[in-house]
Amino acid sequence: MTRVKKGVNALKSRKNILRKVKGYRHGRSTKERQANEAIFHAGTYAFAHRKDRKGDFRRLWIVRLSALLKQNGLLYSKFISLLKTKNVALDRKILAHLADKHPETFKEIIKIVSK
């Protein structure tokens, strides 16, 4: 078997790795082994936190809803149960948007549900 010198390929992969870690601190931005480790961990955290972001937004929507509901004398849990019994198919994201940007429309929904 012929001898393969991997100088070009090694330089290319090293350059790609170091391009990904540009801006990292200390040896992570200059040393190939530390850079590889940093990329691996960054990918793991990115995956996990993409999942976490969904829960974070749901919590934000609930806080926004309960703030406006409290002003109208309703509890969040009671409001959600009333929505389900009246078969109003609006999710928390839409309700939070209405509460934030269109409070008059949201008050109409409260009136419809609380009848």
TrEMBL record:
One of its GO terms (molecular function) is rRNA binding. InterPro entries: Ribosomal_bL20, RIBOSOMAL_L20_CS, Ribosomal_protein_bL20_C. Keywords: Ribonucleoprotein, Ribosomal protein, RNA-binding, rRNA-binding. One of its GO terms (cellular component) is ribosome. CDD domains: Ribosomal_L20 (cd07026). SUPFAM superfamilies: Ribosomal protein L20. GO terms for biological process: ribosomal large subunit assembly; translation. Pfam families: Ribosomal_L20 (PF00453). NCBIfam families: rplT_bact (TIGR01032). Belongs to the bacterial ribosomal protein bL20 family. Binds directly to 23S ribosomal RNA and is necessary for the in vitro assembly process of the 50S ribosomal subunit. It is not involved in the protein synthesizing functions of that subunit. This is Large ribosomal subunit protein bL20.
